[in-house]
Structures
1.
Amino acid sequence: MTSFMPPAQRIWWKVPVGRQEIVWILIALVWCLIMFFMMPYWHVYGKQNISNEAYQTTPAKYQAKVQAMIDKYKVREETAQKIPVVAPPAGSDVYLLARLWQWYPMLELEKDKSYRLHISSMDWNHGFSLQPVNINMQIVPGYEMVVTVTPDKSGEYTIVCNEYCGIMHHTMLGKIWVK
Amino acid sequence: MSQFRQCPDTGLFFHKPAESLMKANAVAGAVCLLIGGILGLLVILTRWPAVHLLPADAFYMVLTAHGITCLIFWIIFFEMAILYFAGSTLLRSRLATPRWAWAGFVLMIVGVISTLTAIFQGGSSVMMTSYVPMPAAPHFYLGLILFAVGALIGCFVFLGTLVVAKNEKTYEGSIPLVTFGALTACIIAIFTIASGAEILIPTFLWSVGYISHIDAAMYRVIWWALGHSSQQINVSAHVAVWYLIAGVLFGARPMSEKVSRAAYLLYILFLQLASAHHLLTDPGISSDWKIFNTSYAMYLAVLASMIHGLTVPGAIEVAQRNKGLTNGMFEWLRKAPWGNPVFSGMFISLIGFGFLGGISGVVMGTEQISIIIHNTIYVPGHFHATVVVGTTLAWMALTYLLIPVLFRRKMILPGLAKWQPYLFGGGMSIVAIFHMAAGTLGVARRHWDMGFAGNPLGFEYPGTAYLLMGIAGVGGVIAVIGGAAYLLITVGSLLFGEKLDASAGILQSFGVPLADSVYSTEKPERLPMAPAEAVEGHGDSGFEAPGTFVLAMVLLVSFVVYYFINWKYLSEVWPLS
Amino acid sequence: MADETSTQDAPEEKVPVMQQIIDNPFLLLFLGIALPTVFYTLWGVMEVATIPVAP
Ligand code: HEM
Ligand SMILES: [Cu+2]
Ligand SMILES: [Cu+2]
């Protein structure tokens, strides 16, 4: 009958704490610190970190970069919409844009090569969700993010949009092939 | 004229205006849960691939309404009732400025109507996050703003009541732990609402054309100070409800006032920082900010939750052992009143919140692990464990406690009530677990068609994902049945339950005070300090609640294992830097 | 409000600082708003505001 009554002692701060709680608090604290240090640890020793490199941009400016890349490295077109497929050289800057409701253009990358992948949105928030590897990132309009990716398995990959972006959100797909 | 009545069964004092406000807020919350629950059924039946009930536009509209109605309206109305209860009733104090409290209530109602109207008119299917620049109708934002202002008034009424109680010396010593928990919730609520104002007012002005541009990344930073902190209100409040129920049912006393209150202090200081875990894959924000904030400053707020996770069941165990249930590790738990929905609801809430919601939340809020979870259906899986199994079920358990005490009605359908927490908690746990599982396979949240039917680019998630979403669908239906049972029992009791007070008519169930003669106390006697413990200073004599310690270690081991499993998953995806 | 607990009763024992803090709702309110405002909101807004413009 006491959790909803004032503490039994006027000065409750000085009432000694039971051993059980102390032990638990210490164990939990150690675990909390381990979890905390895992994050910086992974920045140093782990391979999956988002760089946080990003720039403010505008749709027009970004689109121009995408177009320049397409003009240079386009290899073919896909689907009735004739979406360009681009095969940029290893190590280069690759520009992907998100807009209602597609990922543009499609990419052909080489296995075990690194690319500086830039992504931005032309309109609303979108979600970059690369399947089936399951890499997910938030794409925010007005910002160009840069992530260095190193595809380590070949195959066909699909970019799903996993941030709600309006009525046809569920049709928004893109492709990356890794050779 | 006397303003207080004393509940003849529990001895609690109710201040007439506070009592009416609690009833009105609780009932308004229940109505929202009814609406939100029906919408939840429509949503889960659409995400169940074999059923796929709604068309796309309706789905997104209904999902927007479901999120807002449940998470914001239902939870916060009920929280207001809890604040008034913890402030006025538990402190035996009059409520400060009841008129302001009513004004707040009215604003909240107007807000609900405005926002829901906007959503169902069809032009505001923007999800509850309403990320700019996707536009919603002005009265969508306006409704949220009004609702928030109303809730803010409620918070200040609660703080005012603390001042009144202190000045009028209605209690001795420090405020009770439960009230302190409510205070924590109130403080977090004020930060939450201030952040909401910071972002929603400009967004409203943008929607009517007074502001031309709102930065999309800025919006996300500030919106999540609202969006996530609001969940921390729930955590603080439902932990307080756990303590309350432990106290009422078992006469349990906190194992240590110092430890429990210090844990709440950690909540006040650090819990709200974790809003950052929503932005871990956002462009351009440094890892320093992400790591410091997403870890609630080195996980000190997680530490606090782990402490409550020990001290709440620990307090129950100690009380049970003192009653002689001392055999083995778990007699105290086996012989707990599992048929009493107040207890079962509270305990399932505790376990579900800790094991499902808590562990998954910390794991997914790890900077890098977010990469494999962000915006997948894992996320709704996680928060249905926290906010539905945890918070909602705790509210339900509290309702069962309050129907006789506050509403003066006997509960109807006790047989059904016995099962209700199991149906609801069990069904919702299935939803949570299987959505989380589907999320690890990449299935997107807020997504109408996981099959991408007819899409020229074609893509299919693994077959298992469909199975998992189907099982979640079954769990959802069970949970909806449990939710319907709750509403049937509670609303039915308010309407048809046996009257425990002759004047407890139908109107009285919805906020009208009982007969004047019932309020016969002018000023309640001062609330004394809890009686000193029989065996003082348990201190070093060993473990008082060994069973709980075992449970806590089980939690810790599951936590550690699951945490590292996710690092393992992460290490298998493409290298990123 | 803060020191009332200490003056309220016989001057028996001084209330420890931590208890005084925890017993003071408005101090807690201040802390509970100041900390997240500084660490989360202001720092976060600065982070976004200092993102460089694309070349
Ligand atoms: C009664 C049974 C319930 C069922 C069957 C249910 C089911 C669902 C489902 C399937 C989703 C959609 C996942 C997606 O596609 O992204 C969802 C979203 C959500 N639910 Fe529930 N839910 C229920 C109750 C609740 C309650 C009680 C709350 C809050 C207290 C709640 C809060 C939410 C929120 C906040 C969202 C996210 C909306 C968004 O993404 O904007 N749900 N629910
Ligand atoms: Cu999209
Ligand atoms: Cu959150």
2.
Amino acid sequence: MSTDKISFEPKVLEGEINIPYKWTTGPAAGKFLTTLRDERKIIGLKCSSCGRVSVPPEEICGKCRKRNSEFVDISDEGELVSFTEVRVPVFWQPAEPPFVIGFIKLDGADTLLIHRILASASSLKKGLRVKARWKEEREGHILDIEGFEIIQEG
Amino acid sequence: MKKIAIVGYATSPFKPGIRDIHLGELVFNTVQEALKNTGMSIEDIETVVDASCDIIDGRSISNTFMIEPMGAFLKEEAKVEEDGAYATIYAYMRLLTGKFKTAMVVSHGKISESSPDTYSGTIADPFFMRPMGITALTSTALHVSTYYGHYGIDEKYAAMVAVKNLGNAKLNPRAHNKGDYTVEDVLNSEVLATPIKKLDSPPVTDGAAVIILAVEGEAEKITDTPVWIRGVGFINDGFYLGHRDLIELPSLREAARRAYAAAGIKNPAEEIDIAEVYESYSFNELMLYDGLGFCEKGEGWKLIEEGTTCRDGKLPVNVSGGALGANPLMARGLVNMIEVATQLTGKAGEHQVKKDLKTGLVHSTSGFCFQSNVVWILSNEKG
Ligand SMILES: [Zn+2]
């Protein structure tokens, strides 16, 4: 149905796009990241209207549309809500597969943080207590926390 | 409000990697086929909306190089950086203004020229999700772990969805990923990200899909079998996965509620005769049954166990094979729409559902874990 056929040798042009960026973090993510770096501490943002404490900080509450500014200290311990063991390479992956990522409900937060879980999937179950393992050299990045380890009972 | 109908459509072949023709020709051929099917010429198309993705095409504002193949030359044209079922919203609204009588939606992608991972990985934000390796696969795995964990749903029910969709795909010439599998085959296939396995996952698919819409008065002149739009709802949730309610699926539920309200549907499980939903991964289909109100909350597994959503069930879902059968990114939503339109008009050939059909549901989604959802209600009756 297309135009008259042009006889040609099938040709595929290979290339790639590498684009550098400098992303401004804004105040909420920025303070969260520099606090990881300088104070080795996790902070959350409290909505001035509904009171929800979000980690990572939600600069504008979706429900209330408040620009939040009240930071509160959050524990670096919490509960594992769910997790997946990733067994294949994925884009921008934090580690060689297999690696585990999970949702963590940190003590003092009302939302879930996605982070690496530093344990084999077979040793994990929903509801386990976990604690952050901090990097010594920190740069103001979410991976200043290497991941979360299971807190051994007793 | 003016009534709008789907009057024509076409799809390209769907393949894991189309190398013999380039994107422009893929689109040109599909548009020509849609025009031929309706007996229209390109001059009859008054406005065009394109659904495509800059990252997939490897160009900024990637509709700029598709004007000629789409047939949008010196016409009003705009692009939506979303799936085709979203672009249809804008074509629909243009027709509702009364300024146009016909509109064409063109959706396309050759994801094999890049990779599905590149596409979904760049949806993630650079601060909190990219460093964790969040992609379509890993976000879905986390979502499944959360939702299935909350309700205590066994993964075998997702495997039953995969068996159904891959089996349905066998009868559908538009699907390329198909076969007879057992639940055990699915459960024993390669694990990609627990609990998602290879056979729960969509294939890599290149392809294009086109639909033509027309207003009442015009639609009946173009075709004897218009498929009428009876309602639409579309809703967005927030971005970061941990800030969202991944159990309640509020965006999906509200999009469905609005579509049902517009179409006068009170009990979707009783009133909808057929549905094509964008499941992407087998596990998601049970969440869709829940969010679309086909069952009680958390009880999607019952519908697959009882066979309700199978080809010969009371409410067949994804008789096309769904995204497991073919997953042309940016075009899948239009494929769902085309599938329901062909079923409602009895033109689905070998995979035509063997019962009377009046009302169909089309779903598509965008972003991670059902962040954004669109639900269309179509009917072969004008209403
Ligand atoms: Zn709030």
